[in-house]
Design goal:
alpha+beta; three-stranded antiparallel beta sheet
């Protein structure tokens, strides 16, 4: 999966990275490399399935939609 991120220098030093397609997925780092490494970890955690997320009733339908 490839996602577009925005990397910008922070006023306090270092970098801030956001993922526009994943609301609230933000990270920071002292260097560009550290910031990009940290955002990769943040993305993985953001997309990780939590056990409670998969607890559905017997009447639940699993469907796909196109956007």
């Amino acid at each position: 999966m490839r996602l577009r991120v925005i990397l910008e220098p922070s006023e306090e030093g270092g970098y801030t990275v956001i993922v526009p397609s994943l609301p609230g997925c933000i990270s920071e780092g002292e260097t560009r490399e550290e910031a990009l490494k940290n955002i990769q970890e943040a993305i993985e955690l953001y997309l990780e399935t939590v056990d409670d997320d998969m607890d559905f009733s017997e009447q639940a339908e699993f469907l796909e939609v196109a956007v």
